[in-house]
Amino acid sequence: MIKISTFYIKNEQINNENISIVGNDVKHIKNVLRYKVDDELEVCDENAVRYKTKIIKFLEEEIMLEILEISQKDTEMSIAVDLYQGLPKSDKMDMIVQKNTELGINKIVPVLTERVIVKIENSNEKKKIERWNKIAAEAAKQSGRQRVPHVENVVNLENIVENLSKYDIVIVPFECEKDKSLKMALKNIENKHQSIAIVIGPEGGFSDKDIAVLEKLSNVVKVSLGERILRTETAGIATLAMILYEYEL
Ligand code: SAM
User: Fold this and answer.
1) Domains of the chain listed by start with CATH number
2) Residue 205 alpha carbon to ligand 1 centre in Å
3) What is the pLDDT of residues 176-206, one digit of tens each?
4) CA distances from 182 to 110, 170, 186, 224, 231 (A)
5) Angle formed by the axes of helices 92-103 and 122-143, to 10°?
6) 179 C-alpha to ligand 1 centroid (Å)
7) Ligand 1 pocket: which residues have CB below 6 Å?
8) Nearest ligand 1 atom, CA 172
């Protein structure tokens, strides 16, 4: 079965029964995929609605699609899980973005905690964020998601406390936590939460100050991920995979 390519559009690109593809996707469809009139495409809008469409017309900078049906296939998680990732060194963030996107993350926020070693100047921050969002789009397309998770700008830990307070639960895998496991934390969840945040420390882990900042929140649960120390890039992926198991599989 030929894999039908998925494209992500803004809602304003939908006009009744038609959808117009614009921008870089036009060249990709024309010159890379070499699609022709009547070829089928999958299109997802900003509300994660997935449309089965076919090409009806090629214009200079636009491709017109006809909506054939609204697909019932739903590949999104039933709950929104956001990852607040202590900014790691080198290109580990590439893998963190790719793997968490495949697993269904809702959004990723790079966080500066006390032991973050990376110094990210404004000049290259924009380029890195653009790169990470490109990786998220590619991973979303490859895994057949209806939405592309957004990678937000880098933010200080102190500045996310307000946002974290709005989640149903904030799961903080903490390497010094010995009592509560992730399994216990998830089992104790009576109602299935609608929104979960995961906060992962950088290579150097969480400092006492970081933990003190997070412990101000009543919805924070520090958990152990077991006796072995996971790399920062592994910890978020493992935590999301276990939440996925608990909630979806
Ligand atoms: N510097 C710490 C040490 O050597 O003990 C390790 C930090 S670990 C590389 C990075 C982050 O992954 C931690 O801050 C925590 O968020 C998470 N993590 C790794 N292993 C964990 C475990 N066994 N239990 C809970 N969290 C863990």
Assistant:
1) 6-71 (2.40.240.20), 80-248 (3.40.1280.10)
2) 6
3) 999 999 999 888 766 666 899 999 999 999 9
4) 22, 12, 6, 6, 17
5) 30
6) 15
7) 173-175, 177, 200-201, 203-206, 224-226, 228-232, 235
8) 16
**Token reading at 48:** 């994660």
Task: Provide the 3-class DSSP secondary structure of residue 125.
Answer: helix
Query: Which atom of ligand 1 is the closest one to the Cα of 227?
Result: 23
- Note the pLDDT tens digit of each residue in 123-166: 789 999 999 999 999 999 999 999 999 999 999 999 999 999 99
- How far does the centroid of ligand 1 lie from the alpha carbon of residue 77, in Å? 26
Distance between Cα 96 and ligand 1 center (Å):
15
Collapsing DSSP to helix, strand or coil, 204 comes out as coil
- Sort 168 into a burial class: Cβ within 10 Å, 0-12 / 13-18 / 19+: middle
Nearest CA to ligand 1 atom 27: 175
Summarised one tens digit per residue, pLDDT across range 14-63 is 999 999 999 999 999 999 999 999 999 999 999 999 999 999 999 999 99
| Residue count (the chain) | 249
Q: For residues 180 and 198, what is the distance between their CA atoms, to the nearest angstrom?
A: 15
Cα distance between the two ends of the chain = 26
Q: How far apart are CA 52 and CA 65, in angstroms?
A: 10
- CA dist 189 and 168 (Å) reads 10
Spacing, Cα 217 to ligand 1 middle (Å):
20
> Which numbered atom of ligand 1 lies nearest the CA of 202?
10
Return the number of other C-beta atoms located less than 10 Å from residue 44's C-beta.
Answer: 23
User: What's the predicted TM-score (pTM) here?
Assistant: 0.91
